Amino acid sequence: MYPATARTTAARHLNRVTYQRTEAHRILDEAYHCCLAFVVDGAPRALPTLHVRVDETLYLHGSTASTPLLAARDRKGLAVCVAVTLLDGLVYARAQAHHSANYRSVVVHGTARLVSDPADKRRALDALIDKAAPGRVADSRPPTNRELAQTAVLAVALDEVSVKVRAGDPVDEQADLALPYWAGVLPLRTVADPPRSAAGVTRAVPSYLTAAAPAATAPTYPDTVPKRTP
């Protein structure tokens, strides 16, 4: 379990919050992108980027010329908030006020530090490439020294972490249950289409991309949707 802190304690929907380490890891590993939020020169910024988790560290990909990477060069690092969300469905209630979404999300608070050690940087980038397709690192050209110099990696320790999940049917008011409106859930999931070879490529699509993989499914959390009583 991750410890609950002032920054990770929710003010609403407490039944949807968990600090389970395994669930946080599962969501971080399934998601391919995240949103990195920070403040520079008094102005809030939010950038979409790629991430990968290695043990209890979250690595974020970026350019050495980007604002967060430049700010993170400070020896104190850069205070950040990282959010990852998997949207599992749209929830349609009888009442408009109770429309919602089924989702799994992770929020990480911490200090981002620039990964400067070349070996650590390569390991983080290798993990990011292999997350896109296990085995891809061995089946592609490694970066040159110039490419490595142009690429930056931020590291954020997974110390302050919270998970929030909403799953299940809509929650209508008891008085609305007899209304003649459809209510339910439109499930959503991310699926991969068949790979398309780039122009000029003569090699067959690698097996690690064509191998059938089970589609991601949203877990069921019976206790994440509060029940209304008459």
Q: Low-confidence segments, ≥5 residues, pLDDT <50?
A: 225-230
Secondary structure: number of strands: 9
Q: So how many helices? A: 5
Largest sheet strand order: 2-3-4-7-6-5
Our estimate of the beta-strand percent is 25-35%
CATH A-level architecture of the domain at 14-171: Roll
Percent helix among the residues?
Answer: 10-25%
Q: CATH class of the domain at 14-171, please?
A: Mainly Beta
CATH homologous superfamily classification of the domain at 14-171: Electron Transport, Fmn-binding Protein, Chain A
Termini gap: 35 Å
Cα-atom Rg, whole angstroms?
A: 21 Å
Shape: globular
- The sequence of SSEs as H and E is EHEEEHEEHHEEEH
Average pLDDT rating = 88
Q: What's the main sheet like?
A: 6 strands, antiparallel, barrel
Structural category is alpha+beta
SSE map:
Layout: E1 17-18, H1 21-30, E2 33-40, E3 43-54, E4 57-63, H2 67-71, E5 78-92, E6 100-114, H3 118-132, H4 145-150, E7 151-157, E8 160-166, E9 184-187, H5 207-210
Please give a structural write-up:
This protein has 230 residues and is of the alpha+beta class. The chain has helices spanning 21-30, 67-71, 118-132, 145-150, 207-210; strands at residues 17-18, 33-40, 43-54, 57-63, 78-92, 100-114, 151-157, 160-166, 184-187. Strands 2-3-4-7-6-5 form a 6-stranded antiparallel beta barrel. The longest helix is centred in the middle third of the chain and has 15 residues, at 118-132. Residues 225-230 have low confidence and may be disordered.
